[in-house]
């Protein structure tokens, strides 16, 4: 079967890989219906993380083709959505809602789902079957649930977005945009999108943003304060992962407010004294997408949300390298790969 | 009147100061019944913070002697307890429970309550009268409510201590010890005190600690994990404020757990990547003691808690310098100054 391998920064190739087989009795094999390229895939692509011949991809939807002897909740023929972190969903950490830190967690990045088939470990705890075979037009949204929507949703939950709250969103990539959608669904009263790209501002408004701030850094913080009686937002979603974006998020939050941070941290050092003085709540990390999947799938199935519109470029798997280039050059927000 | 002035590191003197007068109509003047020395007063005493002729002290209980025209909730003769941060208790931040970050906050350290009298700004929002004149033996506990108890209590609340939870406490000073008392009152199932001093271990057990860990740093983290099925504590109270203690707290917390940090941060830099991976909730800062005062005063009045036992040395105000020395040299955990 064919799959994406990253040989080094900027060097992505679609190559022949071995067809996955059941290794553990808890495994399932799926034939992918679609996969995609994640903002976090750009870190190694740009040389910020080391990479050397790694299979790529951790977002996936598809049809189960084979299951191990111990798998009971999905069966061949089921259309499934899974998280980018495989989890048993039964350990104490999973039961507390932190499946991305399951005691038996398997990061799907090691598996590589930018491919025709993939082995999904811990299938019962990782995969959720849709109510039936989805209409073709639902596939992008279901794929979004696998990571970007689940991550934006977690960020909004971690930031305690909800009725009566003003939510600010730092980062206008797919995760930030879907954080806006999540905040809206969770009932936020006002949503401030921080973005300087016209196309993303438009999507932000479509998802529920009520205000757009195009300043960044301290100037962006000032604008958020001006919009919130000088206090700052109740809830701030951080979806970038840099020192600047983290500080912008913390400083845009009112005392006692909540920061939900999901941008993968790169060279971030948080000053303890400022954090102490800010009195914000800080919570984030790799989203426990599995916690939210049943709810998100239902919302998509019922056509109440349309997160798939974040995919603004669709390419066949064979053209994955062009997809990486388009995202790296910001010609695309999020690339869907058809398989 | 007499009051404590710190002229420089290690140089504390009791001197004649001007008798405080009503400046704003929202002020009250109190005659102190007792004051005390805070662990945070040791930072400038040891040269870690700059100081040059500053009045000292921010913890206080006493009797109202005079009120400004706008004060309505306390009157001369009332015995009152106040927070170390004066607050209006009416702004949006106060109403959310963050009185220590009130939009009109006045840190009481500027006032200096290691003295015979003190001017309390924003008296209505800051002071809480006791149900009557307290018995003498209740005064140390009421004084503790003003800062160390209120701070330990906030740390336990921020760490979400409660039924079914295992709470670990980093720091065995007065705040850490009262964090144990708070966790117990909040219903924690198991409380792990991290302490290597026999006398403090004893007090920790008296307040409700079920386990004592005398290892520090990584070894301490390992012990907490051993005691919690390898997962870490649900809730961790940090009551020191150093890089080591913060990392010990974060690493002792299970994924998805809560760190409540109240040790005043000194040269702390939190690594973003580790925080991201840990998935802990982080919340802390200067405790909004005013939020908890009514409840804490009632618990003390009803003799349900006895936080005053953390004072292990009582001196007259005139001997404040000896009090500082005793705390600096760890001969005393917490010094009460009679006025």
From TrEMBL, chains A, B:
Q: Which Pfam family, any one, appears in the UniProt record? A: ADH_zinc_N
Q: Name one GO molecular function term.
A: oxidoreductase activity
Checking SUPFAM superfamilies in the record gives:
GroES-like, NAD(P)-binding Rossmann-fold domains
Q: Which UniProt keywords apply?
A: Metal-binding, Oxidoreductase, Zinc
Query: What does the record give as cofactor?
Result: Zn(2+)
What domain of life? Answer: Bacteria
Asked whether the UniProt record includes Chaperone among its keywords, one would answer no
Q: Which parts of the sequence belong to the Enoyl reductase (ER) domain?
A: 8-337
Which family does this protein fall into? Belongs to the zinc-containing alcohol dehydrogenase family.
Provide the protein name.
IMP dehydrogenase
Record organism? Tersicoccus phoenicis
């Amino acid at each position: 079967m064919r799959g994406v391998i990253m040989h080094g920064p900027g060097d992505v190739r679609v190559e022949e890989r071995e067809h996955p087989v059941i290794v553990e009795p808890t495994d399932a094999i799926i034939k992918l219906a679609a996969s995609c390229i994640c903002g976090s895939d750009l870190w190694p692509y740009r040389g910020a993380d080391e990479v050397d011949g790694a299979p790529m991809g951790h977002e996936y939807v598809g049809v189960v083709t084979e299951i191990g002897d111990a798998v009971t909740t999905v069966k061949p023929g089921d259309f499934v959505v899974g998280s980018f972190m495989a989890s048993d969903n039964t350990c104490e950490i999973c039961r507390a809602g932190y499946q991305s830190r399951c005691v038996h967690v398997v990061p799907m990045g090691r598996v590589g789902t930018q491919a025709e088939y993939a082995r999904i470990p811990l299938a019962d705890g990782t995969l959720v079957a849709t109510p039936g075979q989805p209409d073709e037009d639902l596939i992008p949204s279901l794929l979004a649930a696998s990571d970007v929507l689940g991550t934006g949703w977690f960020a909004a939950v971690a930031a305690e977005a909800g009725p009566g709250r003003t939510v600010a969103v730092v980062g206008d990539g797919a995760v930030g945009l879907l954080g806006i959608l999540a905040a809206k669904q969770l009932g936020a009263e006002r949503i401030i999108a921080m973005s300087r790209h016209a196309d993303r501002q438009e999507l932000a408004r479509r998802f529920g943003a009520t205000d757009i701030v195009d300043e960044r850094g301290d100037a962006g913080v000032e604008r958020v304060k001006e919009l919130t009686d000088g206090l700052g937002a109740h809830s701030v979603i951080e979806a970038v992962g840099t020192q600047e974006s983290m500080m912008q998020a913390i400083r845009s939050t009112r005392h006692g407010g909540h920061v939900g941070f999901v941008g993968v941290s790169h060279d971030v050092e948080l000053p303890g004294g400022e954090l102490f003085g800010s009195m914000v709540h800080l919570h984030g990390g790799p989203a426990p997408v599995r916690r939210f999947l049943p709810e998100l799938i239902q919302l998509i199935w019922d056509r109440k949300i349309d997160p798939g519109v974040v995919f603004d470029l669709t390419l066949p798997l064979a053209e994955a390298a062009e997809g990486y280039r388009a995202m790296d050059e910001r010609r695309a927000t999020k690339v869907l790969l058809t398989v």
